[in-house]
Write a structure and sequence with these properties.
The structure holds three protein chains of three kinds.
Chain A (H helix, E strand, L loop, with lengths): L4 H17 L8 H24 L8 E11 L2 E9 L1 H24 L6 H20 L3 H19 L6 H32 L4 H6 L6 H18 L7 H5 L5 H10 L4 H8 L1 H5 L2 H24 L3 H20 L6 H28 L17 H15 L5 H15 L2 H30 L21 H22 L3 H10 L10 H24 L12 H7 L4 H47 L6 H24 L1
Antiparallel strand pairs in A: 1-2
Chain B lengths: L4 H18 L5 H25 L8 E9 L4 E7 L1 H20 L16 H21 L3 H10 L1 H10 L9 H37 L4 H9 L7 H18 L8 H8 L2 H26 L1 H27 L4 H22 L2 H32 L10 H4 L1 H14 L6 H16 L1 H26 L15 H19 L2 H17 L8 H5 L1
Antiparallel strand pairs in B: 1-2
Helix pairs in contact in B: 1-2, 1-4, 2-3, 2-4, 3-4, 3-11, 3-14, 3-19, 3-20, 4-5, 4-6, 4-11, 5-7, 6-7, 7-9, 7-10, 9-11, 9-12, 10-11, 10-13, 11-12, 11-13, 11-14, 12-13, 12-18, 13-14, 13-17, 13-18, 14-16, 14-17, 14-19, 14-20, 16-18, 16-19, 17-18, 17-19
Chain C lengths: L3 H20 L3 H26 L3 H31 L13
Helix pairs in contact in C: 1-2, 2-3
The chains are: A mainly alpha, B mainly alpha, C mainly alpha.
Amino acid sequence: MENLIALLVAAPLLGAAVLLCGGRRLDRAGHWLGTVLAAASFVVGVVLFADMLGKGAEDRALHQHLFSWIPVEGFQADIAFQLDQLSMTFVLLITGVGTLIHIYSIGYMEHDERRRRFFGYLNLFLAAMLILVIADNYLLLYVGWEGVGLASYLLIGFWQHKPSAASAAKKAFLVNRVGDMGLSIAIMLMFTTFGTFAFGPVLESTGETSEGKLTAIGLMLLLAACGKSAQVPLQSWLGDAMEGPTPVSALIHAATMVTAGVYLIVRSGAIFNGAPDAQLVVAIVGAVTLIFGAIVGCAKDDIKKALAGSTMSQIGYMILAAGLGPIGYIFAIMHLVTHGFFKAGLFLGAGSVMHGMNDEVDMRKYGGLRKYMPVTFITFGLGYLAIIGFPGLSGFFSKDKIIEAAFAKGGTEGWILGSVALLGAAITAFYMTRVMLMTFFGEKRWQPDAEGHEPHPHESPKSMTIPMIVLAVGSVFAGGFFAIGDRFVNWLEPVTGYEHGHSPLSVATVTGATVVALVIGVGIAWAMYGRKPVPVLAPRGSLLTRAARRDLLQDDFNHVVLVRGGEHLTRSLVYVDHSLVDGVVNGTAASVGGLSGRLRKLQNGYARSYAVSMFGGAAVVIAATLLMRAV
Amino acid sequence: MSFPLLTATAALPAIGAIVTAAVPAAQRTVAKWVALFFSLGTLVLAGVVFARFEPGGDRYQLTESRAWIADFGVRYELGVDGIGVALIGLTALLIPFVIAAGWHDADPLETKSSRWRPTQGFFALILMVEAMVVLSFLATDVFLFYILFEAMLIPMYFLIGGFGDRAHAGSDENAAKQRSYAAVKFLLYNLAGGLIMLAAVIGLYVVAGTFSLSEIVEARANGTLEMATSTERWLFLGFFFAFAIKAPLWPLHTWLPNAMGEATAPVAVLITAIVDKVGTFAMLRFCLGLFPEASKWATPVVIALALVSIVYGALLAVGQRDIKRLIAYASISHFGFIILGIFAMTSQGQSGATLYMVNHGISTAALLLVAGFLITRRGSRLIADYGGVQKVAPVLAGTFLIGGLATLSLPGLAPFVSEFLVLVGTFSAYPVAGIIATSGIVLAAIYVLVLYQRTMTGPVNEAVRTMPDLKARELVVAVPLIALLLFLGVFPKPLTEVVNPAVEHTMSDVQKKDPQPEVEAAK
Amino acid sequence: MNPVNYLYLAALLFAIGASGVLIRRNVIVLFMCIELMLNACNLALVTFSRMHGNLDGQIVAFFTMVVAAAEVVVGLAIIVSLFRSRHSASVDDASLMKL
């Protein structure tokens, strides 16, 4: 069985290689090839899953060693895979949602002349993401980590002729690289501390080193997670990343890649368990982002950017849960999976809306679309109910568990984190209701596009609606399926460990409070966007709204401090290099030249002046000789 | 006596140079094929050396020794260790690509006279450089090495000054002036280093009484050759200065951007990917091998300079407006990594540095040669003159991107392996230095992606609208290099296998042990 | 007679010759002054030979004479051709020996 693991990665990798090197000949069949290989990977995943279910909890983990990667004295890096319950969960999510999105893209990208390349990139992404989650050591994980970064770069910038897309892609890669720096420092710290960076040995011997070391490693891992999962302070790239095609936003920037940070923290649970300070920082980062993303989501008029804010916020929930330690790890992953369903569904719905509306993204120019796009409306609506945590749907179960666990953290921290999570639930309800109302309800506010075409909203083709329906089903039932009978907890417990948290509030109180928060959020949104018509031009808004539209001024800060500062720094260094470093050398050359110019004047061509210098020289030599002798 | 394989490997390109130069003026194409043929022959011989080399065997293998200048104890001594094997492989591998990429670079614009033969000269000089570089990787006699170290400046000078990049801004006259400035600067810098090294070589002979590397190392190891601390330090500085100019290390780097900017792309590859490696190679073999104590004494300063190189080179690369100068500054940053790895004096650092030399050679060659194809098409080196190339020439843009990704050390491509080894090796001995160097990976991403964004993406620049995509000859150059980058990124074992034992020898020369991990030390 | 006196004479002759070289402009005179300096040296050499009681100095004096003869041949040739091209025997007119 374990020999199948490599096949998971091999299938999409083959697809990427063939599609990207194959040339124009494959233009007609390329998208089918890509989709089939993604589905093949899913099938392999399901086979492995079935096999895993047949075994006892303790010996479910599979291991496959391919070859020794970098054999250097004192340093062992292997290409080796490990498939345990945690990895399995991710494999199914990635390949499953990935396959659906491949199918969706067949329709969505139909008119793009570079569709083959798009599928090549998608396959590349799947391969890298699978490497990330099934690697058995941190260095191989790093390969996947940067690999998904590359795929994300290529896909965000897929429409490279748009300068905004090109610079969004670059921004995403650069911000991620800052996080990657954290990951490489963490790996180096592991190497000097444990002499290895394979999961097994590192995570088993965390007890043998000091808390300080573990805290350092933990914080560096957190930095990496912040980059990849768009957490404060490295969140600025996610909004811009919406420049990519919508299926990309659904797959990479909602369901899978951005959750890699959560995977990293949960996978490294043993390190964080030994470093409570780092763990607390994780929870705080999660809580801050949770509110930050939610506020940004409230103010955006671009439907994809509003959803991006929401993604940021939901991942904030997951990171918050991961920062709670063993009482939260499993719920972080559970929310991650349910979020994968409903957020991917929401993005695909947004894509479907854009598809029907001449690629318009401004929600102020939507309105009343429910009649024109019934399937999109229903699937989007189910995703909406799931994300706001409507009782009985996926989001309700997973979010509720996180809020409970946050209160169960205990002490003042518990109260603060729990209240923040509750507040976040209210804001989530607000901004999602806003999106829903502005898009599907109210009056038509359609505008002709730049070339004067009136939009003719229509339902999307089957290849697009079927994946949306499947994801909607998932958003409705997944949460309940996982939560009832603690199925998910039992499944993951052998890997991540689990402690039942004891909340100071009863379960019923927390649930009640969540529902109240939900009602308040929906109510405010209804009052603002449902009762009165939505203006086509955005009103000026309060100071907070204006700041939130600009991503709470993060970009302005980055621009002024990093971009401008960097430009000044490089410009002055170019000057220094030219005039100072090179100047010293050129100056030496010039002064030698000047000196010889002076000396040249002595050579005036008059024989008698040469004779004088000869005699003078001889006199000096004689005088010196005599003097030396006298002394 | 067995067949002198090493001499043959170095002699074949030299013979090739003579034959190429002798081809009649009108037969330019013949000259090109002759040069390519000899460079491929050298590659085959280098492959034989690689195959015959036994990683677990003696330190220097396939040795040859003949008396040369008996009065001064100078011998013609050759031998190859793991590091030498790797670098000879790199040199022999890259030269055919350099020749193929520069196929039309030396075609005369107009026929001046029937005896005007720049093409023959160009390819003969390239082969001459190859012969000298290969021999310098093989020389185990300090004096022989010194002579080659200096002699290779002559063909390089003519290659830089005589065959400039036709893509330049401004008039021909101005370009010629710039070019001769760059060539003279290259020559003067390197001669200055060589002069100081000559003093140190003579000093070494006075102290040791022999030029033989292995004899001196052995005598130092078993204590028969005592060197006063100050003598050792002065000699070390003499050698190190020359190598630091060649490598180049901040602040002795300013010749490189000029030389690389003015030379044609293939010649720029020759400079940065091959000839400069002699400098870093010599640091490893001569500085550390001959003067272990002084090397340890100088380590803090050298590491500081290497860190400055890494950060400074990368920042300057960000600020460049000229594609080739940008790559030159990126190379300065990379040489910082190599020197950092050498002087960190850990197994990982030194293995990493050696792999880095090879991988940097391949990745820079890929990036620079594709950049050269781009520049030849447009006739400009300025980044601002491009835009949207991706749309008109997707294959060119794709290969350029892969070359760039290799330069920023993306995992999966070869440079990642070496860069990570250098970082780990440095971090385990000098954590702060390791962290500062790690910032280089962010800066590298900036200059590569900004370059890609400005040239390849965005709206199509009017001047590139009709730009043709890569032709067959150019694909033959780009594709194997990229394949090699991928292969060595996933499976670097063939290289690490030959390099590891050599690194162990160097580590025992400097009598250093790797720092032990905390947890295992506790066990 | 004290041989040191010959040395004084040689020094005097040398000084006369040297100052002649420096002061006079006419090439022929200059040339003769050089001959005077050479002969002053010869005188000194012979004197030293006498003082030390060996023949070394005298041998060197012969060499000097040979060199002087050669120099006269070459020097006169230069002077003649110089005079032909410049119609002047002044050294200061030939100042082209410079960069």
